[in-house]
């Protein structure tokens, strides 16, 4: 999850087991594309399917007389998905270390780049 400039080193393609071991030993740097990781996480968690009903419930509450409660639910329906997307690289890193399937999907989607750490 580093943002170090690593333009000189070619990207790596590692199997999951080697990736976990190399990351644990600090031999690689993992760079995430923030926008792509937010889209990937949104699709993985099906956030649009969560947002629409929450917004609908908020509107229904506001129209039925519970104005402040409805506005609060609407605000939560807007803010929570944005916070989840903002933290996508960190969340995905934890998931990628634990799940080989998610690692393969992330590599295939191009949301992460593995670079060998240079010894300094």
How would you sum up this structure, described in words?
By secondary structure, the protein is mainly alpha-helical. It is built from 6 helices and 3 strands, in the order βαβαααααβ. The protein has helices at 16-25, 34-45, 47-63, 67-86, 88-98, 100-109; strands spanning 11-12, 28-32, 112-116. A 3-stranded antiparallel beta sheet has the order 1-3-2. The longest helix has 20 residues, at 67-86. The model is unreliable at 2-7 (pLDDT under 50).
Beta-strand content: 5-15%
Which segments are poorly predicted (pLDDT under 50) over 5 or more consecutive residues?
2-7
Estimate the helix proportion, in percent. Answer: 55-70%
Number of strands: 3
- Most strands sheet: 3 strands, antiparallel
**Count of helix runs:** 6
Written as H for each helix and E for each strand, in order along the chain, the element string is EHEHHHHHE
On the 0-100 scale, what is the average pLDDT? 86
Class based on secondary structure composition and strand pairing: mainly alpha
Gyration radius, to the nearest Å?
19 Å
Shape verdict: elongated
Q: Spatial order of the strands in the main sheet?
A: 1-3-2
Spatial gap, N to C terminus = 19 Å
Topology:
Layout: E1 11-12, H1 16-25, E2 28-32, H2 34-45, H3 47-63, H4 67-86, H5 88-98, H6 100-109, E3 112-116
């Amino acid at each position: 999850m580093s943002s170090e400039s690593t333009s000189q080193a070619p990207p790596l393609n590692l199997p999951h087991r080697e990736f976990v071991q190399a990351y644990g030993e600090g031999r690689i740097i993992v760079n995430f594309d923030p926008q792509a990781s937010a889209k990937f996480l949104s699709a993985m968690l099906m956030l649009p399917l969560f947002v629409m009903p929450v917004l609908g419930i908020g509107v229904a509450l506001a129209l039925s007389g519970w104005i402040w409660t409805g506005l609060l639910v609407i605000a939560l329906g807007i803010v929570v998905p944005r916070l989840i997307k903002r933290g996508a690289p960190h969340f995905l890193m934890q998931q990628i270390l634990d799940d080989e399937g998610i690692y393969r999907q992330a590599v295939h989607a191009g949301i992460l780049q593995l670079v060998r750490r240079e010894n300094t």
